[in-house]
Amino acid sequence: MEIKGKTIGTGKPLLCVPVMESNKEEIIDELRTLAKSEADIVEWRIDTFVDYKNYNAVREVFAAAAECMKEKIFLYTFRTKKQGGMGELAPDELNDLHDLAAESGCVDLLDLEFFEEEHPARKIRKLHKQGLKVIASHHDFYETPDREVMKMLLEQMCAGGADIVKLAVMPQNMEDVLKLLSVTYEFKEENPDTPVITMSMGKMGMISRLCGESFGSAITFAAHKKASAPGQMEMHEVADILERIHKIM
Could you say which of 25, 89, 115, 211 has the lowest number of CB atoms within 10 Å? Predict the structure, then answer.
């Protein structure tokens, strides 16, 4: 997959940096800062925005993003509390925000919490018709499921029509980290046309955020001011490490 001249799914993993600020001015300032950074993808975590129910305020942020995100891939994410985020919306309210994202004309990718949707495949088809590409995601902040379960989750999201599939899990030991990396490699080998993003969270799983080029994870997340998940390293450090690994490989 290629967006804005950047290839997702082969070679060095793309670097995604989330915007986690809570007020409009800080969000826009961070967007403009990251537009000049080494990030390949900038993610707006709208669930951290105190006014995410104010559609006019949301439109103002999108307008600012349209101006400065011309060269960066712009990812829009509303992360619910069930999936480790800060937001809580009724399904129709969430649909309204997704519609705003599509109407903005600046969103390249939209994160969809696949297993929180009643009809996820239908929702993905609708978002595709609106011109958006979809990352189907699932997060487990408590454990690392069995290998068969993780593979099933990835395959179900893939079968649902997602452009990219994402799975984040919490390790209890280093064997859990190895299980995730193994599942990632197997899924990528069996589904070469669907980019996959995986991560083992926390300090124990930090290595999984750096070795995507070896095991197949297409995008890695790093922090600028605020991390969006446990174990995220600082973006300058991650960019340097990814480049070093890429040159060696």
Answer: 25
